[in-house]
User: What shape does this take?
Amino acid sequence: MAKEASKSDALVAELRAWGLTLPGAHSKAPWPEHDDLAVKDKTFAYLPAKGRPFSLSCKLPYTGYEALQLTFAEPTGYGLGKSGWVSFSPPADQIPDLAWLKGWVEESYRAQAPRRLVKELDERG
Assistant: This one.
């Protein structure tokens, strides 16, 4: 179990570090069990704090329907699912690879960030 937590922590840390390279992105920790990503104080990725099981919630206006077909995906609670938010809580052996996770986080970032920051991201190439 400790090995699975360590693998999850490493993946979340890598995903978080990458997410913080997006224009204007910053950490936001509104609850003890979260260490989320936000832009202009609007969360775009709910991530677990270190030591917690892997999970991810993102706003997916374009790929949400397809993402919800995964057995470990469901509409995000607290009414966020109605706005296109999807939560992923896969078993340790079914966690998608980093490229998939980055794609979801970037889609969510684009949905939450101001246009000028999305343009800045696009100009990076």
Q: What stands out?
A: The mean pLDDT is 92. The longest strand covers residues 42-46.
